[in-house]
UniProtKB/TrEMBL annotation:
Homodimer. It is an enzyme of class 2 (transferase). Residues 1-147 form the N-acetyltransferase domain. NCBIfam families: AAC_6p_group_E (NF043067). It catalyses: kanamycin B + acetyl-CoA = N(6')-acetylkanamycin B + CoA + H(+). It comes from Exiguobacterium mexicanum. Pfam families: Acetyltransf_1. Keywords: Acyltransferase, Antibiotic resistance, Transferase. InterPro entries: Acyl_CoA_acyltransferase, Aminoglycoside_N6-AcTrfrase, Bact_Acetyltransf, GNAT_dom. Its EC number is 2.3.1.82. This is Aminoglycoside N(6')-acetyltransferase type 1.
């Protein structure tokens, strides 16, 4: 198992994995997001590979409010995914460790993340690797009329 920081050449593999995590996201939007994120240096991707890419995590640095953090910028785990065939082998943990080391090298003291309230597996994973829950929210939206 090799864990490394991804580059533009990994775009196809990243998008393939991202589509597994976010199946409703249009492929062309994910492709553009990866390309622009890597080129701009605003998104950082880490990839796990054996003979092929089997997992990824996406890291950003947030300068705005991040629940529970006390410093800025805060490293933020935007997404993490590992294919089913290599789950329960600490691949996700290794990806987060690589992202954490990178964040520390950039001066961050904290790594934040979020997950859906109903995603018990993700919550257990976060807690197992040292995250602590800091907040639960319910989001709302209201249509504004143009009259």
């Amino acid at each position: 198992m090799n864990i490394r920081k991804a580059n533009e050449r990994d775009g196809i593999d990243l998008v393939r994995l991202m589509r597994q995590l976010w199946p409703d996201a249009p492929e062309d939007e994910l492709t553009l997001e990866v390309r622009l994120g890597i080129r701009s240096g605003k998104m950082h991707y880490f990839i796990a590979e054996t003979d092929e890419a089997v997992g990824f995590c996406q890291l950003s640095f947030r300068h705005d409010y991040v629940p529970g953090t006390t410093s800025s910028p805060s490293a933020f785990l935007e997404g993490i995914y590992v294919v089913a065939s290599v789950r329960q082998q600490d691949v996700a943990t290794l990806l987060v460790e690589a992202a954490s080391a990178y964040a520390r090298s950039k001066g961050c003291d904290e790594l934040a993340s979020d997950t859906e309230v109903e995603n018990d597996g993700s919550q257990r994973f976060h807690e197992r690797i040292g995250f602590r829950e800091v907040e639960r929210t319910v989001h709302y939206v209201k249509k504004l009329s143009r009259e």
